[in-house]
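Handoff note, outgoing to incoming analyst
You'll be picking up this chain. Sequence as last confirmed:
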Amino acid sequence: MIKSTAAAVLALVVASFAASAADDPEAVYAQFHRAALGGNIDSMKRLVTTAQRGRMGLSDHPELEAKQLAAVLPPSYSVTGKAVGANRAVLELRGRSGPALGGIEMQGRIVLVREDGAWKVEEPAWLPASYPAPQGPPPQVVSPGTPAVVPAAPGRAIGAPGAARPAR
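Most recent structure output, in case you need it:
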């Protein structure tokens, strides 16, 4: 009887912690970031909006792109700003990039929105700190199949003429 009561109390504590984490956009992004660093596409997709999940599904090589993302993202970051409304939150972050960019200072602007009552990542954006801070919506794809130019290092870009191109 005591064991079952203790188990029930523990289950309630765990459930209330999970519910409070779902109510905190910072905690939701932290889960997304950990999943991205680990290349865990399924976990990432559970933490993003339906629209973002659709954008993630456009790749022919999601596993390769997940590995590339993990190599670029800062292994750790600090929150430098946070604005939370009823249905939209914006996190401003700072951290040093992963090994693919040589540990340069990065700035992040993460937009989360409520979807079906839970916070979901809508616009994750990380850029070198030397770039202007990300503002507004992310750039839109002009035509499907057009390669994007991704910051690789100060003054160079993946996909730029003469630079190594990612496998497609």
